[in-house]
Sequence to fold (329 residues):
Amino acid sequence: QLSKMAARMVARPQRSIPPRCPSGLQAAAVAVAIMIAAFMWPEFNSNKEFPDHNRWFQMWSASLAPQGQLPGFHKQHVNEHLARHLRTAVATANVDNDDQQGPLPAIFVPLCGASIDLQYLQSKGHQVVGVELVPGAIQLLSRGLCESTDEADEEGAASDSQSHSSKQCGLVNVGRAGNFRVWADGQGLWVLEGDLFELGSVLKAAPALTRSGPGLSFNNVGHLPLAFGMIWDRASFVALQPTLRQAYTSLLKQLLTPRGVVLMAALAYDQTEMSGPPFSVDQAQIEALYNEPNTTVHVLSTNAVLQQYPRFQKRGLSRLQETVYLITT
Fold:
């Protein structure tokens, strides 16, 4: 019933990218679906090591309720660090190609939410795979894709209203991969709905494909990449409990192709002043997790950003540094 309810949530959107807050019955349906999922999730989650599932369901449920506000970590613009450093990261991932003109690497976005960054990466020619636990966040992303399609149609083919009205947009459920529901737009953007830490079930199901093969095949949609030349981590690492960092880093290493890179934006602060998430992560902690031969942690930029986060100031924070790392393997 939950999957049917989620499917009905993909409706004609309002004009903004991504949507600010749904309203009326649509918002209520999304919120109810998330609350049902939050209630049912412990029944399916046998791994007691990961306690934060309900927190994320509840956060999105509150955000998508009528008059609710989207979570503070959700941005309505492309991340400036991604836009600034994407070319460098891609060039580094393609370093084995003598002419630097090889195929663009597929990009993995963990804990992707409804981030507009996925659409941005897709627009640059990459296949993009996100993982998201909460169905409602995926539906917001799907509506954002529909809005992008609507605007492109209006600019490029305003007179062809019949074709426009019959065109499929957004994400469609195309099947399953391991423990995940697979969503795709048919143009190289994929979202796996489920627990990030269960992604090993997909890799184990197709061990021969995870490093060099095309991925899992879905009829009429294409191939789901299972190996990535780049991982974009904007708010995933800092969102996780510190006890999960080792498992998370090990998973990312499994997903990277040889010479793959991780582009990461992380926050550092005095953890005694504020409890996470987001949790404080400094360079030494990242270097310890990636302490392997031929792996290097590069600092691309670092800035004091506390003024951009008044909600953290209210929680007692006196200093906040944002650092962008490029981890090369």
About this structure: Confidence is low (pLDDT under 50) at residues 1-23, 33-51, 158-166, 207-212.
